[in-house]
Structure prediction request, 68 residues.
Amino acid sequence: MSEGKANAYSHYGMLHLNEGATAAAVDIITSACGAGDDTHKAGILAWAIEEDNLKKLRDKIKESASGD
Prediction:
């Protein structure tokens, strides 16, 4: 039997805060980087820093978590 891995979603009540939403966004980026080769990792990281995409992702997570 596998054990559940703690991640940013383990404490979903925090997703409406900057800290929780940022942790979730970083977890998403980390998972995406782990799914590809070095070229894909570089592309994902470049996307994250372009035009504040990481912040935009964080804000979308916060928005979704707040139920608005």
